[in-house]
Amino acid sequence: MHENVDRLSETFAAHEHLAPNIEEVLEKANLRARTYRRRRRAAQATGASVLGAGIVASSVVLPGRHWGPGEAVGTAASGGGVSSLTSTVAPAATPTASPTGTYSEQQELSAYFAAGYDYDNALALAGLWHETDLTQVKAEAGLKLLQGSVLPVPPNGQPETQQEKEQDAFFSAGYDYNDAVALGALWHETDLAQVKAEAGQKLLDGQKLPIAPSDVATTADASPKTVDTAEDRALEAYIAAGYGYDDAVALGALWHETDLGQIKAEAGQKLLDGQPLPIRP
Amino acid sequence: MTFAEFAATRLPRLLRYAVMLTGDRELAQDVVQEVLARAQVRWRKIASTISPDAYVRQMVLNEYLSWRRRWAVRAIHAVGERVVELSDSRGVSRDHADAIADTDDVWNRLATLPRKQRAVLVLRYYEQLDDDEIAELLGCARVTVRSNASKALKTLRLQQERHHLTVAGEV
Questions:
Q1: Would you give the end-to-end CA distance of chain A in angstroms?
Q2: What is the spatial distance between Cα A152 and Cα B165, in angstroms, rounded to a whole number?
Q3: What is d(CA B130, CA A133) in angstroms, rounded to the nearest whole number?
Q4: What is the pLDDT of residue B66?
Q5: How many CB atoms lie within 10 A of CB A249?
Q6: A-contacting residues in B 1-20 (Cβ below 8 Å)
Q7: More confident residue, A46 or A217
Q8: Alpha-carbon distance A85 to A93, whole Å?
C-alpha cells in the first residue's frame, strides 16, 4: 500500500500533460459568461429575481421574439416590448471584429438571427453537428455566416429588420431598460422604443452614447456566501420542496431579510441540512 | 486583480488541478469553463475576497463534486494520452518506460474511485494539503477525510492485488 501512496504524487505529476488548452478554455468560458450576463440582464428586464446563473438559465422567458420551447435566450429583452416586423429588409450586417480578429458571441448570435435563422433551424443544425447546446449551435452558425460560409440549412424566416437590429445593438452593448429611460430623459423622448432604436443606430454607427451601460451587478453577486453549485443545490432543494416566491417573502419577513434570492438559498440549505422551515410550502 | 489578470496567471494551474480531479481532459475543460464563466460574471465580488484564487479553486472542486452532467467514462486514456505512449515517442529507456507504465496503471485505477475519495487523494497527494485543510474544503469532518482516504487507498490496493494475480495467471 505504501508503494501506492508514494506513487500517487508521481502519477498526478505525470498526467499534468492532460491539461486542456488554455486559450480554448478561456475563449469558451468567455462565451458562456456572456450568455450568463445576457440571461441575467434579461431576467432583470422582465422583473425576475436573479438567483444565479444556473437558475436563470433555465427560467427566463422573454417577450418580443418567437422563442422556441426551452430555448436559451440569445438577446436581452426590450423593456418596451417592441418587435416590429416590417417588410423592410435591412442591409447586411457589418459586424465589427474584435481586436483579436474574432467575434463576440453576441455578434455571432446577432448574425444568426439577422439572417433569418430561428429556433427550428438551430435544432436542425444541432442534429447535423451533433451538438446539444442550442446557444452554441447558433453562435457557431452565426460565426460561419460572418465568415461568409453557407449553412447546410436554409433560414426559416426573413432577415432581421432595421429596428430589430438597432435594438439588438442597444442591448448587446450592455444597455437596458433603465438606460433607455435615462436616455429618454436626456433626449426629451418618451417613446422608449424610439429611444432604443436611436441609441442602437448610434452604436451601429460607431458613436458613443451619453451614458455608460448599466452594470450587470445582481443580487446574487452581492451576497455569495457559498460558491455557485452549493447555492444552486440549495435553491433546487427549496423549489423541489414546493416553496415559491410568496414563501420567500414570508420567510423574509420572519428573518428580516429582503434579498429573496438569499432567502431561498438559506431556506434551501436548511432543507438540505434536514432542518424544518418555519412555514409550510 | 482583474479577471484577465487572474486568468493569465492562475488558469494553467487551475486546469491541471481540474485534470487531477476529473481524470479526463474534456471533463476538466468543461468544469473549468463553467467555473470561469460564473466567476467572470461575479468577478467583482470574488476579487474582493481574501483569496480569489482559493475561491475559484473551491468552485472547481464543488463543480467537480456536483457535476450534473452524466459522466461519460471513456476508456480512461484516449490514444496518445498515455504517459507511456508519450515516453515511447520520445525514445526513453525501457526501465523508465516501465515506471511510466506504472503511473498509467495507477491513473486508471484512480478513475474507478468515487468522486469524493478521488478528491481527497488529489488534495492530499497533489495539492499537498493536510487533512484539516481538506476537511474545510470539502465541508466535512477531519475524520471523514481520513475515512475517505483510507477507503480510496484500500480500493487501490485491492485493485493492484487483483491486477497482479491476473497478470500471474492465478485468476
A1: 52
A2: 55
A3: 40
A4: 74
A5: 12
A6: 7, 11-12, 15-16, 18-20
A7: A46
A8: 17
Instruction: Tell if the CB–CB gap between B38 and A33 is shorter than 8 Å.
Output: yes
Write down the H helix ranges in A147-244.
162-172, 177-187, 192-204, 219-222, 228-240
Identify whether B167 is part of a domain.
Answer: no
The pTM for the full model equals 0.47
Contacts 24+ apart (CB under 8 A), B48-53: B52/B1, B52/B6, B53/B6, B53/B10
Query: Is B126 in contact with A40 (Cβ distance < 8 A)?
Result: no
pLDDT of residue A29: 86
**Residue B141 and residue B147: Cα distance in Å, rounded?**
10
DSSP B122: I
Question: Looking at residue A3, what is its pLDDT?
Answer: 59
User: In terms of residue numbers, what domain contains B34?
Assistant: 1-77
Q: Is there a domain that residue B153 lies in?
A: no
Q: Residue A17 is nearest to which of B55, B86, B153, comparing CB atoms?
A: B86
| Burial label, B147 (beta-carbon count in 10 A; 0-12, 13-18, 19+) | middle
Q: B165 to chain A nearest CA, in Å?
A: 16
- pLDDT(A253) > 90: no
Q: What is the tens place of the pLDDT at every residue in A71-82?
A: 333 333 333 333
Is B34 inside a domain boundary?
A: yes
Cβ B6 vs Cβ B53: under 8 Å? yes
Nearest Cβ partner for A14 among B26, B100, B153: B100
B120 in any annotated domain: no
Residue A20 to residue B59, Cβ atoms within 8 A: no
Please state whether A206 falls in left (phi above 0), alpha (psi between -120 and 50) or beta: left
**Residues with Cβ within 8 Å of residue A98, at least 6 apart in sequence:** A104
What's B4's domain CATH number?
A: 1.10.1740
On chain B, the residues whose CB falls within 8 A of the CB of A233 are 66
Number of domains in chain B: 1
What b/e readout covers B98-125, taking b as 16+ CB neighbours within 10 angstroms? ebbebbbbbbbbbbebeebbbbbbbbbb
Contacts 24+ apart (CB under 8 A), B40-44: B40/A29, B40/A30, B40/A33, B40/B3, B41/A33, B41/A36, B41/A37, B41/A40, B41/A53, B41/A216, B41/A221, B42/A218, B42/A220, B42/A221, B42/A224, B43/B2, B43/B3, B43/B6, B44/A217, B44/A221
The rounded distance, in Å, linking the Cα atoms of B93 and B87 is 9
Which among A4, A22, A227 has the least Cβ separation from residue B160? A4
User: What span, in angstroms and rounded, lies between the C-alpha atoms of B28 and B18?
Assistant: 5
pLDDT of amino acid B41: 84
Neighbours of A128 (CB within 10 A): 12
